[in-house]
Amino acid sequence: METTYGQRIRQVRQRLGISQRELADRVHVTKQNITQIERGYRQPKAERLVALATALGVSSDYILGLQETM
Questions:
Q1: pLDDT by residue (tens digit) across 11-20?
Q2: 20, 23, 39, 47: which has the fewest C-beta neighbours closer than 10 Å?
């Protein structure tokens, strides 16, 4: 089973010990928006994906599953 970008975001966020609220504050969205992205209900636009990757300290390629290592 392939890992989705939402699952990758959740895994990195949890590994860093960051709450959904804290990540949301870092990228200027609501906590509900982060929840929807992590669950696969919402797809972030390119600029939001870059902001999420930057906030988590990983590459957007990693989030998208194009790169296996952080």
A1: 999 999 999 9
A2: 47
